[in-house]
TrEMBL record:
<dbReference type="InterPro" id="IPR016072">
    <property type="entry name" value="Skp1_comp_dimer"/>
</dbReference>
<dbReference type="InterPro" id="IPR001232">
    <property type="entry name" value="SKP1-like"/>
</dbReference>
<dbReference type="Pfam" id="PF01466">
    <property type="entry name" value="Skp1"/>
</dbReference>
<comment type="similarity">
    <text>Belongs to the SKP1 family.</text>
</comment>
<dbReference type="InterPro" id="IPR036296">
    <property type="entry name" value="SKP1-like_dim_sf"/>
</dbReference>
<feature type="compositionally biased region" description="Basic and acidic residues">
    <location>
        <begin position="167"/>
        <end position="188"/>
    </location>
</feature>
<protein>
    <submittedName>
        <fullName>Skp1-related protein</fullName>
    </submittedName>
</protein>
<keyword id="KW-0833">Ubl conjugation pathway</keyword>
<feature type="domain" description="SKP1 component dimerisation">
    <location>
        <begin position="131"/>
        <end position="176"/>
    </location>
</feature>
<feature type="compositionally biased region" description="Basic and acidic residues">
    <location>
        <begin position="199"/>
        <end position="214"/>
    </location>
</feature>
<dbReference type="InterPro" id="IPR011333">
    <property type="entry name" value="SKP1/BTB/POZ_sf"/>
</dbReference>
<dbReference type="InterPro" id="IPR016897">
    <property type="entry name" value="SKP1"/>
</dbReference>
<feature type="domain" description="SKP1 component POZ">
    <location>
        <begin position="23"/>
        <end position="86"/>
    </location>
</feature>
<dbReference type="Pfam" id="PF03931">
    <property type="entry name" value="Skp1_POZ"/>
</dbReference>
<feature type="region of interest" description="Disordered">
    <location>
        <begin position="166"/>
        <end position="220"/>
    </location>
</feature>
<dbReference type="GO" id="GO:0006511">
    <property type="term" value="P:ubiquitin-dependent protein catabolic process"/>
</dbReference>
<dbReference type="InterPro" id="IPR016073">
    <property type="entry name" value="Skp1_comp_POZ"/>
</dbReference>
């Protein structure tokens, strides 16, 4: 007798709980909504959140998590990267950028920004310990510098020449002297300034006389 296959009974899928969405605020107070998985791409944030994430109700009741030293435009780039790469393995500690780091198309587009923003993005990735982002952003800088002369690198990274440094220092010194001169001028021209100065002188004289008188009495 031929074996009869047992009927397949479909098993109802167990509904998964929705991912927790956290509120995070930038230096200016701009709020972002970031998923738990994305935030955990930052080892700094992962350590802060711990192994027991808050419930949706907790998140709703709590204030936004402040990141007070990163501006909104940079924090937005960090979170976009984290959302795109959440769940991926976090690179191991390494003091150098691995030679085999490749920059995915998404990351390349994300980092198509001016050098100043790229510098602040690297600083933010380092501060939040987002190793994957730090690796690709440093790789981006390394590729930009490859084969460039010192003069070309100076232009790319906005490094001032010695002459520009000296000129900037001269301007700063002149501005400081100008402010000092204006402050002294205002003090002289202030109503009652001379009278106040005379009164102060008289008070000092009286104080000296009192001291001399006291010393004379004690000697006697």
């Amino acid at each position: 007798m031929a074996a009869v296959d047992a009927p397949v009974v479909p098993v109802a899928a167990v509904p998964s709980e929705p991912e927790i969405i956290y509120k995070v605020s930038s230096e200016e107070g701009t709020e972002f909504k970031v998923s738990d998985g994305a935030l955990r791409m930052s080892e700094t944030m992962n350590a802060m959140l711990g192994t027991n994430p808050m419930t949706a109700e907790d998140v709703e009741k709590n204030e936004a998590i402040p990141i007070n030293n990163i501006k909104a435009e940079i924090l937005e780039l960090v979170f976009k990267w984290c959302e795109e790469h959440k769940g991926e393995p976090i690179p191991v500690d390494d003091d150098t950028v691995p030679k085999n780091v490749t920059i995915p198309a998404f990351d390349e587009k994300l980092m198509d920004i001016d050098n100043d923003k790229l510098f602040h993005l690297i600083c933010a990735a380092n501060y939040l310990n987002v190793k994957g982002l730090l690796n690709v952003s440093c790789k981006k800088v390394a590729l930009m510098a490859k084969g460039k002369s010192p003069e070309e690198l100076r232009v790319i990274y906005g490094i001032p020449t010695d002459e520009e440094d000296e000129a900037a220092a001269k301007v700063a010194k002149e501005e400081a002297e100008k402010k000092k001169s204006e402050k002294e001028k205002k003090a002289i021209e202030a109503p009652g300034a001379e009278e106040a100065k005379e009164d102060e002188g008289k008070a000092v004289e009286k104080e000296d006389e009192a001291k001399d008188s006291g010393e004379g009495t004690s000697s006697a």
